């Protein structure tokens, strides 16, 4: 095997073999994942059948309770869940426009599914590289049926509003006659910055989608929560989109393990991310954003080509069993590369001095051009 897939497997093997990991988590084998899933299995639970019963129903009830929602529906992907939520908003309001940020997930990462599959069109809030304001929503030039808010706004740097700013934006959307949907793929870790528990966020809006693998460490899947009317609509359209698969118990079991083991740790990851970001900001030529981070993820820049940084990360991992930061990519500024740092369980073992030492060991492997 050669090419990108071989490179990816080499990086995963190197990361798995590391004793020290700053960003991300050590990959698990399939056997390890199965053991974790088996440990999360409720007693005497039968497999689900086409989305009904079994551990899938257990996960739906668990997440509905955690988010304070009336009902929850499991989907194989978040993209599909969001198409259903946006379609529902359009049908209820009679408006085929969706207001959303230019950096939001449906516009950047879903191949225009909202338009191609659902027949909707986008009304973009200003591209200011930050969360939209209430004034910007109020001043949008045309009507819209749904206001989509991504919490956090990942492609702007995992940015979140303050609680008061969020309430004002939601109120502005409602004043325009729109429903409000939250892309909450990473909502679980957003509650620290917002200063409110997840049910309070859910109660503020009409619908929320949460991921079962981002942050929770599951294998796949998403859950859409809202009222009973939305849930019934979601099950019908999930079937039409081909998402009512025969059995989804593996995704549901992995999600249960994540809810039991990762969800309680997320506030600690967010707190430690502040120390990590503050320390990395002292590296020569480095920049972090936001400072401090709003979640346990943030952006990190270094003044070197991405290839040189990726080679250095791999060499450090293979030769010293230490993982710094990977998946660097070049920016529009020549010689400046960007990576996303994810502070998870392994990073909790590292204090500021250890992080500084790891950064220096990493940079010594970057060739000076």
TrEMBL record:
* Cofactor(s) in the UniProt record: pyridoxal 5'-phosphate
The domain of life for this entry's organism is: Bacteria
Q: Secretion signal: which residues?
A: none
Q: Name the UniProt key words of this record, in alphabetical order.
A: Pyridoxal phosphate
Q: What Pfam families does UniProt report for this protein, alphabetically?
A: Beta_elim_lyase (PF01212)
* InterPro entries named among the record's database cross-references: ArAA_b-elim_lyase/Thr_aldolase, PyrdxlP-dep_Trfase, PyrdxlP-dep_Trfase_major, PyrdxlP-dep_Trfase_small
Annotated Aromatic amino acid beta-eliminating lyase/threonine aldolase domain residues:
35-291
Which SUPFAM superfamilies does the record match to this protein? PLP-dependent transferases
The record's similarity note reads:
Belongs to the threonine aldolase family.
- Specify the protein name: Threonine aldolase
Query: Which species is the source of this protein?
Result: Micromonospora thermarum
């Amino acid at each position: 095997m050669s090419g990108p897939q071989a490179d990816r497997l080499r990086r995963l093997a190197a990361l798995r073999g590391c004793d020290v990991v700053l960003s991300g988590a050590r990959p698990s084998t399939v056997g390890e994942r199965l053991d974790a899933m088996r440990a999360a299995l409720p007693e005497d639970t039968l497999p689900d059948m086409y989305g009904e019963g079994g551990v899938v129903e257990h996960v739906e009830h668990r997440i509905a309770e955690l988010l304070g929602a009336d009902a929850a529906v499991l989907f194989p992907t978040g993209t599909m869940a969001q198409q259903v939520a946006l379609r529902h908003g359009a049908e209820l309001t009679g408006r085929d426009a969706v207001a959303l940020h230019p950096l939001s997930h449906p516009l950047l990462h879903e191949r225009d599914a909202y338009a191609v599959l659902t027949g909707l069109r986008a009304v973009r809030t200003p591209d200011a590289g930050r969360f939209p304001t209430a004034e910007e929503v109020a001043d949008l030039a045309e009507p819209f049926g749904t206001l989509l808010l991504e919490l956090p706004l990942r492609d702007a740097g995992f940015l979140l509003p303050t609680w008061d700013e969020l309430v004002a934006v939601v109120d502005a959307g409602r004043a325009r006659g729109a429903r409000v949907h939250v892309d909450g793929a990473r909502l679980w870790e957003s509650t620290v910055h917002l200063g409110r528990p997840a049910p309070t966020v859910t109660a503020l809006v009409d619908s929320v989608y949460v991921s079962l693998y981002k942050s929770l460490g599951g294998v796949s899947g998403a859950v859409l929560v809202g009222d009973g009317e939305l849930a019934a609509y979601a099950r019908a359209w999930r079937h039409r989109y081909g998402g009512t698969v025969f059995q989804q118990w593996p995704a549901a079991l992995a999600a249960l393990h994540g809810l039991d083991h990762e969800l309680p740790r997320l506030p600690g990851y967010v707190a430690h991310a502040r120390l990590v970001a503050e320390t990395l900001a002292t590296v020569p030529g480095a920049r972090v954003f936001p400072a401090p981070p709003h979640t346990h993820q943030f952006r990190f820049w270094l003044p070197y080509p991405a290839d040189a940084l990726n080679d250095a990360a791999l060499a450090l991992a293979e030769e010293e069993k230490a993982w710094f930061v990977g998946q660097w990519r070049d920016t529009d500024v020549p010689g400046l590369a960007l990576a996303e740092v994810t502070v998870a369980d392994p990073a909790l073992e590292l204090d500021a001095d250890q992080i500084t030492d790891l950064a220096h060991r990493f940079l010594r492997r970057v060739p000076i051009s």
